[in-house]
Structures are given as C-alpha cells and as structure tokens.
Amino acid sequence: MDWGRLKTIFIIAFLILDIFLLTQLMNKQKDNKLEVKTDVSLEENLKNDGIDYSNIPKDPIRDQYMSANTKVFSEKEVDKLKDQSVTIVDGAIIYSELAHPFKIPEKLNVQELEQYVKNTVLYGDQYGFGNYDEKAGTITFYQKHQDKLLFKNRSAHLVFYVKKDKEIDSYEQTMLEMIEPISEKEEVLPAMRAVEAIFRNKLLKSDSKIVRAELGYYTVVNMEASQVLTPTWQVVIEHDGEQESMLVNAFEGQIIQENTGNGKTVLEVK
C-alpha cells in the first residue's frame, strides 16, 4: 500500500472540508452582519430624525387570539347602582345619568378617576383609562383582560360625558364576557417592529417621542354577539406637545387605521 499517496489524499480531503466549513462560517457571519446592519439602520434613521424611542419595552412577550361574547346586563345588576337614573338599551348598553355630577380637577388625575369608576360603575375594576378628549367632551375607559386594554372597542368601553363646566353628568357602558383563548400562545412581534411599521409608512414625524408602547387587544372579527381579538400594540406618540396613538397588529405587523366610517383601513409594513 502506498502510504505516502494515501496520506496526500487524506490531506487534500481535509483541506477541502476545511474550505467548505470556512465558507459556511463566513456566509453565516455575513448574514448576521446584514441583520445587525438592518437593525442599526433603523435606529440610525430614528436618531437622525430626532425620534426618542427609549421608553418602548424590549422583553419578548407571548400571547394568543381570544374570543369574547357581548354581555347582556340584567335589571338585577343595575339595581345595585345608587344615585343614578339607569336605562338599559338593547340589553347590552347601560346609559346612566348621575344624581351628583363628578367635578374634574383642572389637571386630570387618572388614579382618582379610576377609583371613582370602581365606586360608581358596575365591574368598574375591569376598566382602564383610555383617553380624555376635551374637544368632544368625553373621557373613555376600555375594558381590561389580564391587565391588557381592549383598545377602541365599542362593545367594551365606558364613556363619561363631560359638560362645559368640567363636570361628568352621565355615562355609557358596554362590556364583553367569556373572554377565552382560541389559539396557542406564540411570541408576538417586539414593540420595536411596531415603531418600525409606523416609521416606514411615514407616520412618525421628526422630533417625536414614543411616550409608551403597550400590548392589548383589538377586534379582528366582529359579529353581533361575539368577537375575535388579536394581540395589538398601542404606540403613543408625542409631537409638539400633542399626543396621538396608533395600533399595530402584534402578530402580522400591520398598522390599524380607523376611518370615519364603520370599517377600518390597514397599512402593510413596507
């Protein structure tokens, strides 16, 4: 047996294997660099536009699709409400006029308002503050599920009507029940992807600040007596002293934009 020739064959074979492995490693490193470069590019663009996004959460989150049914209020339930004149509309809407209007302080105190809700409204501890629209004269709370708000849901909200003298004199309440998962939990898109979706669609103005990004739910299928909810990021943006919120589907990365009609429009992430 020609050991010298066999040795040469082994050396060549190992050399070819080493070259192959080295090529695979270099390609992998190249791919990783491209991924990092993409992330850095977004961050650099945000920085160049003077956009502060330091408040967004970074930890991975898992969530799932949920189903829910419209709650029908009973006379027995509303009888518990004191100092109020209550009307049930179509079984699912409570309209109440307060015997003693609630004065809103010059500077809105959300914690004080939340305590008022707990003491005044049916299942008040299941609602969280949404927004105060001074022009419309409304303060809106949204129902919560596992401490996550059901964003912009007309079937799960609490709307206080504010008079010109800054007093709440009435409210409207709707609610969902039997909120249950209908899919397995999976990791949602990070909050940074929601910010990216807004930025790529040119909806994020220069010198803005991301005040917060919180995960909640938004209705993707709405039937008369039931709904399907999807995990959704709400991104609150401040620009020139004014705030606005945008919703991004946390599974698909789509921006949800409500229009003036009954439907909604959706912008894809570019």
Automatic annotation (TrEMBL):
Residues 32-251 form the Regulatory protein YycH-like domain. InterPro entries: YycI-like. It holds the Pfam family YycI. The keyword Transmembrane applies. Keywords: Membrane, Transmembrane, Transmembrane helix. The chain crosses the membrane at residues 6-23. This is Two-component system WalR/WalK regulatory protein YycI. It comes from Siminovitchia fordii. The gene is yycI.
